[in-house]
Specification:
Elements (H helix, E strand, L loop, with lengths): L9 H10 L8 E4 L2 E8 L16 E5 L1 E2 L46 E2 L6 E10 L7 E10 L1 E6 L2 E7 L5 E4 L7 E10 L24 E11 L3 E10 L4 E9 L6 E11 L7 E11 L3 E9 L15 E9 L4 E8 L4 E4 L2 E4 L2 E3 L1 E6 L13 H13 L4 E4 L6 H10 L2 E3 L17 H17 L7 E3 L8 H15 L4 E3 L16 E3 L18 H4 L6 E6 L18 E2 L1 H12 L6 H24 L4 E6 L28 H5 L5 E6 L4 E3 L3 E2 L2 E6 L5 E11 L4 E12 L3 E7 L2 E2 L7 E9 L5 E9 L11 E3 L4 H8 L3 E5 L31 E6 L20 H4 L5 E2 L11 E5 L7 E2 L1 E6 L2 E6 L11 H14 L12 H6 L28
Parallel strand pairs: 23-24, 23-31, 24-25, 26-27, 28-29, 29-31, 33-41, 42-43, 43-49
Antiparallel strand pairs: 1-12, 2-3, 2-6, 4-12, 5-30, 6-11, 7-10, 7-12, 8-9, 8-11, 13-14, 14-17, 15-16, 15-18, 18-19, 20-21, 21-22, 32-35, 34-39, 35-38, 36-37, 36-40, 40-41, 44-46, 45-47, 48-49
Helix pairs in contact: 2-3
Family: Belongs to the glycosyl hydrolase 2 family.
Enzyme class: hydrolase
EC number: 3.2.1.23
Length: about 950
């Protein structure tokens, strides 16, 4: 999906330019963008050798990373990556040997940068201090260095900082004279004393990459030595005031008095609201002063939320008695985001969080976007899919993201930059314990005024003494800053519960129980009944889709999709290169079906207050986790549009309750209609229900009169009844439920099969074994149907369920399921009597779920089965569930799904068997490929030649990778 920025509202465009100066003091600036001198310090010897007093020999362009400048080390099998590798098979698998060669390194774990470097690097630039800056406070501001920075001016160290979450600002010496000076930076991106965890998205190679450099704004700023150091705004909607807390600073041992004037103006509302300015006296003693002011916002205030993201700009002006001036502008919104019992509320109205996890995927740069436009695009795309919330997994985005989210109306949950696991932990007295407090304090100081900053957590899934540590963390923040809600950590279902969380972000109440027949009645109520605060599903979804190899050409920046190249070449080696697109589309349709049903299940669950998908877009690391309906560039893949996704993920969503999706003609179809409403205000609505056949014809209509939808409630509308006893031919009907006069609509597919099927006169020999009689029938030119259910040996290791691969098979060491749905040709005459598209759908559940698949590794080149399960892309085995072949003089169909003449309790399987039998009785039954009887029999006798081997018996979190260099 492409967002055309010039079409945005004028206020939004204007906002881009307004906000670049927000949260900064009034200052003169000099940009430091451009060419810098540079030197790599791989042996960490520069400090001892005093490189800060030398002229560095190389050059580099900043802002930018070393990788962007083609600086660093070539990628080899010995590259010391920052991130866990849980699958050693890449280093041993003989079939992947060619991808371990020095001139053809292709790793499957994540994207591959041009260059990689972990360690110390030095940057240097000459600057000119203007004469009119004499006597001013001069600050070197680096928006996003990665990560630990030391600064020298003319060979004298002036400071060091280590942060992943905010700009690093260094005050230059007060006695610095105008003229030429030299700034030297030492930047270290290695993990040292403070270990946030190598898989933390603030630095891991799984996502943004562990890069060295500086990005974002790079400035020298000159301002008054007496200045507004910090301003925090605390909205009070009930009293219609904004409490403003101001920190003042001056040179040490300096005292100052004067006055501060505060005023505020709304800037993105239809009616501009001006807040009457007030003036208060201030006092600074020994270089420090504080001031608290209550600013009346007027009788008419504009509040901020997802529907009306009204914003104000606070302007604070300082004037000292000796004439010194400073000014600071702050963006804020009048909003109150809180937990009331088990519900979220925004400004007193219930909220359901429809979220996605942002894992810092920026495949062109390898570091997060620093500009507002890029983040506006991300939030606009998310909102187009019906979402209103974003969690930042173990990282905090730059200020541009908060600015954009404020403008768009998006609720954010940034986190401390830590996944304290896999080599790190919290609560054990390590430096990270204090670092988390330092980082979250920096986050709230710099971004706390942004209305979108509604929630915060320490980070992701820690180890250590987490209950004790995170309980104190919550206590600290609840007492310090009430502008947002706090949860200790975002965690899976096996992590301990932190008792004083203000909301829960946990797994355990997610997923689809499609080991049983799919329905739309079950809820997650039982799983969340223990919680007394709002519950948000942690990392919902994680349904995989086959790689989109067309995406490879998009990687024109710092990364190359060598992982995709490996998978594509391996698919070709397995004789299926021509099926890549059909695998993508078919697996994508199944993925979308899963997301739809899981989100709807969440929406119909009482006291369920939100979900965080993992994620709307793909995750490029951890074995390559292709779990998004969008790619890593936030673009659509082709199998579902934003508009289609939004039908089941919106502020208002029609829902149904049905016990199943497949019916026979002697059953009545009686779906119960309801609506989940989390909109701006209550609605009084009429609904129209329509059944639409495969030609687009409306075969049934039912209208419901006025119903009132209360905000935050699931409203029961009523039931419809459709008698299908007239159905004599199998078919599909789509049920659409629409709220008249609105965009709110949803739809579901149902299948109706006749109870009795015509008898087929056939000479087909039906058997459960490829026995001597079957061989004789085939040798004599006859027809054989082999029901091989439960008999497969070659392919027995491949576990198929109706659900696709979770996250990916590499990261979880081939944990089942292993398939991604299947592909079929709906025009194949073998399926003429079985209604189907080219992909998995509900009518296939009883046929596919837990059915064996066959590995056709010895079949002729170009052979295509009738029903072809899609294998995990790490192995790309050619699989079959139903195939046909010429054998001897005869013709054969083999099914590893249980298909037989007696399937009365399985209408879909009965219908498919009927379709295959009718096909075999027709003149169209003429298999294209000839296969030896021995090759087919071998499926039931000999294991697969290609087997997955992990080369380790460690559990994933304990794995120690054994790397080979050849």
């Amino acid at each position: 999906m492409q967002i055309n920025v010039p079409k945005f509202k004028n206020w939004l465009l204007a906002g881009f330019f307004i906000f670049f100066s927000l949260n900064t003091t009034q200052a003169q600036t000099i940009s430091l963008k451009g060419k810098w001198r540079f030197k790599i310090d791989a042996n960490d010897e520069g400090l001892k050798a005093k490189w800060f007093s030398t002229v560095l020999p190389g050059t580099i362009n900043l802002p930018g990373s070393m990788a962007e400048n083609f600086k660093g080390d070539d990628i080899t099998l010995k590259t010391k990556w920052t991130g866990s590798i849980y699958d050693s098979s890449y280093f041993y698998n003989p079939g992947l040997a060619k991808y371990r060669q020095a001139n053809n390194i292709k790793i499957p774990f994540w994207l591959t940068p041009h260059k990689h470097y972990v360690g110390v690097a030095w940057y240097q630039k000459d600057i000119e201090i203007p004469a009119n800056w004499n006597g001013k406070r001069i600050v070197l501001s680096l928006e996003y260095p990665h990560s630990a920075t030391k600064v020298w001016i003319d060979g004298v160290e002036i400071g060091s900082q280590y942060t992943f979450v905010v700009a690093q600002n260094f005050e230059l010496p007060a006695n610095l004279k105008p003229g030429k000076h030299t700034i030297t930076l030492q930047i270290d991106n290695s993990i040292r004393a403070i270990n946030v965890g190598k898989d933390s998205h603030s630095l891991t190679d799984h996502t943004q990459g562990n890069w060295n450099g500086v990005v974002g704004k790079m400035l020298l700023q000159a301002s008054s030595p007496i200045y507004l150091e910090d301003i925090q705004v605390y909205p009070d909607l009930k009293r219609k005031i904004a409490k403003v807390k101001i920190q003042l600073k001056a040179p040490s041992n300096t005292s100052s008095t004067g006055k501060i004037t505060l005023g505020a103006t709304s800037f993105n509302t239809k009616e501009i609201l001006n807040v009457k300015p007030i003036t208060k006296a201030y006092s600074i003693t020994n270089g420090v002063g504080t001031l608290e002011v209550e600013l009346p916002m007027g009788d008419k205030i504009a509040t901020w939320d997802e529907f009306d993201p009204a914003l104000y700009r606070l302007k604070a002006s300082l004037l000292s008695k000796d004439g010194k001036k400073d000014e600071k502008q702050v963006q804020f919104g009048m909003r109150e985001f809180k937990a009331v019992g088990r519900s979220f509320q925004i400004n007193g109205r219930p909220v359901f969080l429809r979220g996605t996890v942002n894992n810092c995927e920026f495949p062109l740069t390898g570091y997060p976007a620093m500009d507002v436009e890029a983040w506006v695009r991300i939030f606009k795309i998310s909102k187009a899919h019906g979402l209103n919330h974003m969690r930042f997994h173990s990282w905090c985005p730059p200020e541009a993201a908060f600015i954009a989210a404020d403008l768009i109306g998006f609720y954010l949950q940034p986190e401390g930059p830590s996944w304290a696991n896999h080599g790190s932990s919290i609560g054990n007295g390590r430096p990270i314990d204090q670092f988390i407090y330092d980082e979250t304090n920096r986050m709230t100081k710099n971004y706390g005024n942004y209305a979108s900053f509604c929630m915060m957590a320490y980070g992701n899934e820690p180890s250590g003494k987490q209950v004790e540590y995170l309980t104190k963390f919550n206590e600290y923040w609840k007492a310090k800053d009430s502008r947002r809600l706090y949860t200790g950590a975002s965690v899976g279902g096996s992590w301990p519960v932190i008792p004083n969380n203000e909301f829960m972000v946990r797994a355990g109440a997610r997923g689809l129980d499609w080991g049983k027949k799919p329905e739309s009645i079950a809820t997650y109520a039982k799983q969340i009944e223990q919680f007394t605060v709002p519950f948000v599903a942690h990392e919902m979804g994680q349904y995989c889709v086959f790689p989109n190899f067309k995406e490879i050409r998009k990687y024109t920046g710092v990364y190359r999709a060598k992982n995709f190249e490996l998978f594509e070449e391996d698919l070709k080696d397995h004789d299926m290169a021509d099926q890549a697109e059909s695998f993508l589309m078919a697996s994508g349709k199944l993925q979308a079906l899963c997301y739809k049903n899981e989100i709807e299940k969440a929406l119909r669950t009482p006291n369920y207050n939100g979900f965080q998908l993992l994620s709307l877009n793909d995750y490029p690391g951890q074995g390559t986790a292709l779990i998004g309906v969008l790619d890593a560039f936030w673009d659509e893949k082709g199998y579902i549009t934003a508009k289609e996704f939004k039908r089941f993920s919106n502020s208002t969503v029609p829902l149904i309750r049905v016990p199943k999706f497949v019916y026979t003609s002697d059953e009545s179809f009686e779906p119960k209609i309801e609506v989940a409403h989390w909109g701006k205000a209550p609605l009084t609505v009429n609904l129209t229900c329509r059944l639409i056949d495969e030609s687009g014809k409306v075969v049934f209509t039912y209208k419901f009169g006025p119903s009132t939808l209360a905000v935050g409630e699931l409203t029961q509308i009523g039931s419809i009844k459709y008698l299908s006893n007239h159905i004599s031919k199998a078919g599909k009907l789509k049920l659409e439920v629409a709220i008249d006069g609105t965009e709110f609509a949803n739809d579901w597919d149902f299948w109706f099969f006749p109870t009795k099927l015509p008898e087929i006169k056939t000479d087909v020999y039906y058997t459960n074994d490829l026995d001597d009689k079957a061989r004789a029938v085939l040798n004599n030119g006859g027809k054989v149907f082999l029901n091989a259910a439960g008999k497969v040996v070659k392919g027995k290791e491949v576990v198929q369920t109706f659900l696709p691969v979770f996250w990916n098979t590499s990261w979880f060491k081939m944990r089942p399921p292993h398939t991604l749905g299947f592909v079929v040709d709906p025009k194949n005459p073998a399926l003429a009597e079985f209604p189907t598209s080219y992909h998995s759908d509900m009518q296939w559940w009883e046929i596919v779920n837990k059915s064996q698949v066959m590995n056709l590794e010895d079949f002729p080149k170009g052979f295509k089965p009738i029903i072809q399960p899609i294998d995990t892309w790490f192995l790309n085995r050619r699989l079959a569930m139903v195939f046909e072949a010429r054998v001897g003089k005869g013709k054969l169909i083999v099914s590893s799904a249980n298909l037989s003449p007696d399937l009365k309790e399985m209408p879909s399987a009965q219908q498919l068997y009927y379709s295959l039998q009718k096909y075999m009785a027709s003149d169209q039954f003429n298999p294209k490929f000839e296969v030896d009887f021995s090759t087919i029999k071998d499926i039931f006798e000999t294991p697969s030649k290609q087997q997955f081997e992990t080369f380790t018996k460690d559990a994933p979190d304990e794995l120690k990778t054994k790397q080979k260099t050849k």
